[in-house]
Amino acid sequence: RKEVEQDPGPFNVPEGATVAFNCTYSNSASQSFFWYRQDCRKEPKLLMSVYSSGNEDGRFTAQLNRASQYISLLIRDSKLSDSATYLCVVRGSSASKIIFGSGTRLSIRP
Amino acid sequence: GAVVSQHPSWVICKSGTSVKIECRSLDFQATTMFWYRQFPKQSLMLMATSNEGSKATYEQGVEKDKFLINHASLTLSTLTVTSAHPEDSSFYICSATYGTGVNQPQHFGDGTRLSIL
Questions:
Q1: What are the C-alpha distances in Å from A108 to residues A8, A45, A82, A84, B41?
Q2: CB-CB contact of A58 with B69 (8 Å)
Q3: Which of A31, A41, A100 sits opposite B43 (nearest CB)?
Q4: Considering CB atoms only, which of B102, B109, B111 is closest to A91?
Q5: Is A44–B108 a contact, with Cβ atoms under 8 angstroms apart?
Q6: b/e string for A34-60 if b means 16 or more Cβ within 10 A?
Q7: pLDDT tens for each residue of B43-70
Q8: Best CA proximity match to B17, nearest among B66, B63, B84
Q9: For A26-62, how does the pLDDT look when each residue is reduced to its tens digit (9 = 90+)?
Q10: Contact A61/A55 with Cβ under 8 angstroms?
């Protein structure tokens, strides 16, 4: 089993739709969690950190479920510019143990 | 905000050439930097963790003699792909963490697209 697993997609949804991704992790000792987005042929860019109580940034909501060991990302009122690959990142207790998910591809259609 | 600069952004060279890629933290000191490689339509793969003032920690399957890492200062890490071959063609990305807290996210350089002919 992979340490961090994501549904690769692609998710193809119409503009304005709400879409959600999940990411599961295997190490219960994982301490911090992030969502990044990566556009084609570009570097990953931090979208948001994921806090235990859940957090929201505009149209984006991230949640953490430690009991079930998954994090989620919800995008409301999706825009064409949201089309990208979304990477789940899990960090362990040491600075060097950072695991990337394989990414979920999202395509927003007009 | 924290900025990581990577140079060059694109390299095309002949097989057998050694290529050096620089990763700089522009407005913060980074005791640890990370080097990743990404093949088309695949996930980022951690190659090694670069530690300032000490040897890099390589991931399993990554040849340390092939991919030389030097972290000479708190703001600069370099990755040298020695005697590069076409199979080394890939997108190489570095990252650094601002601060030492485990909750600090990584900030990525722009990446270097390496093409070996």
A1: 15, 19, 7, 9, 18
A2: no
A3: A100
A4: B102
A5: yes
A6: bbbbbeeeebbebbbbbeeeeeeeeeb
A7: 889 999 988 888 899 999 999 999 999 9
A8: B84
A9: 988 888 999 999 998 888 999 999 988 899 999 999 9
A10: yes
